[in-house]
Amino acid sequence: VLPDRLRALTHLLARLPGVGEKTAQRYVLFLAGEEGALATDLGRELSALAEAVRPCERCRNLAEVDDLGHAICAICKDNRRDSALLCVVARVQDLLAVERSGAMRGRYFVLGRLLSPLDGVGPDELPLAMLAARIQQDGVKEVIVATPPSVDGEATALLLAQELAPLGVRVSRIASGVPHGGDLEFSDQITLGRAISGRRSVDVPR
Ligand SMILES: [Zn+2]
């Protein structure tokens, strides 16, 4: 009964995380009804998104593209950050969670995914060369691995400890406290702050 265009838009919106068909349809009816101005604003912002925002060239956090076509995020640009400390996270959401805890005075590196042998994600799928280059360029002394406390999160921490050992950098892992299998995104700021200050070195098995 809905016009094709609205049905197509409903299907697109339903692909967003946490949005089912019913919610998507509610949004579409809202936008097509009285909220025409909102639809126009949303359309403009969404079409500019892919060109205006890209992963940061230095850490893969999201960054706005500047006039010269470069994308450097606000954290990488911030001179007050401690260059010797680098916090490695799986996703941008995790970076935001650690940042909210206020316990990280260094910078970040976003892997994009975790090592997951069962799902066919091996070391080659992770941006390890980019991470190593970043560590050497910035003179990083300690890498804090803030991956979630899951099998994949632990495997990733161990891989990083092994791969980064030749660079002479200390690799530490956030302490437990974040519940096992839990998501960094949903742990409270105090728990996450404690997990960061209570971090321990990752021992590479010989
Ligand atoms: Zn950055």
Detailed description of the structure:
This protein is of the alpha/beta class. The protein contains 8 helices and 7 strands; from the N terminus they run H-H-H-E-E-H-E-H-E-H-E-H-E-H-E. The protein has helices at residues 4-13, 21-32, 36-52, 74-77, 92-101, 128-138, 151-164, 189-197; strands spanning 53-55, 62-64, 82-89, 106-110, 142-145, 170-173, 200-201. The strands form 2 sheets. Strands 4-3-5-6-7 form a 5-stranded mixed beta sheet. It has a two-stranded antiparallel sheet with strand order 1-2. The longest helix is centred in the first third of the chain and has 17 residues, at 36-52. The N and C termini lie far apart (66 Å). It binds zinc ion (ZN). Residues 56, 58-59, 61, 63, 72-73, 75-76 line the site of zinc ion.
Q: What's this model, at a glance?
A:
Helix content is 42%, strand content 14%. The structure holds zinc ion.
Provide the fold topology.
Layout: H1 4-13, H2 21-32, H3 36-52, E1 53-55, E2 62-64, H4 74-77, E3 82-89, H5 92-101, E4 106-110, H6 128-138, E5 142-145, H7 151-164, E6 170-173, H8 189-197, E7 200-201
Parallel strand pairs: 3-4, 3-5, 5-6
Antiparallel strand pairs: 1-2, 6-7
Bound molecules: zinc ion.
Residues 56, 58-59, 61, 63, 72-73, 75-76 line the site of zinc ion.
